[in-house]
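Endoribonuclease YbeY
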Amino acid sequence: MKSKLLVSVEGIEEPAWLSRAEDFLSAVLEKRNHGDWELSVLFCSDDKIRALNRDFRGKDSATDVLSFELGTVYEDEDGNSRYAAGDIAVSVDFLFKNAADFKVSPDEELKRLLIHGILHLEGMDHGENHIGDAVYCDMISLQERLLADFASFSIIEEN
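Structure:
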């Protein structure tokens, strides 16, 4: 069974790369064995993500990505059991700021944010572990490994 994606745009012009983002999400979900997942993804402005962050997390500031876990199993119209994982919101404004600040391509940063959102919907968090004096986060380590696995996948094509 193939994952079901509901992708929308709010507060920004529809990006030319939107369908490639859907393909990327499908590929990541397949790699993570989430073929039964239903996932909603919103690409939006800083203003929209700030409102979501304020209304749902009590933080009156824009951020790069938010995940809202639903975690409900239901039967779809074909009689298949589906897992409604939840929602991911990505600020496209913040995405481009992050890319410039971290000196990475917008394509790499978008992939990182989408993977990050999926891992949160899997129940992962930013919990830190200490190995000697170094701080280590299992979620971020996995995120970066997945990002490396999809290095050749291009969402935002460079001009």
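Helices lie at 18-31, 46-57, 92-102, 106-121, 138-149.
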